[in-house]
Specification:
Blueprint lengths: L7 H5 L27 H8 L29 E5 L7 E5 L41 H5 L11 H7 L4 H6 L1
Antiparallel strand pairs: 1-2
Amino acid sequence: MPHPTLTYRQLLHRTDAPPGSSWHLFPDQPERGMANFAGPEQIRQAAHEVRDGRAFNLDYALDAFDPPMSRARGIPHHRITAKHDQARDDVLDEFFLQATTQIDGLRHRRASGHGFYNAVPDHEIAPRSPRLGVQLWAETPLAGRALLIDIDGLLRDRGTPFLNSVQE
């Protein structure tokens, strides 16, 4: 997948899209935006960096923010329903993808003065429309690598534990 060769400085001077944006730079999968930088080659390279093989959940619990980040939205309410004694269904009422640490689609927020990502028209941002939706992350998940830094361990080795300095 070809990556754009524009520098950020060049992107800031764009006139065909919001300055600094990645709009219209990825012809193969335009609605993935900057996630296109994590293509097959980058994922292969990241796989070589794996040492421990551990995965870390970066999500908060759905009810972690009380009050919620947006006071206009409530905290998700979790219910378990049963139509018969052999099955249960988990139901989330008032669940907003944008009000949690869960992944969100690019249709959540318009670029002020420009519209939705890649200039997708308003009428295409609708229920059951795939445009800029969260389903893109299920179809081609985000994958990569991260660096886990043990700040407390580093400071402890230096004789100044992090937890002690936070509590003071």
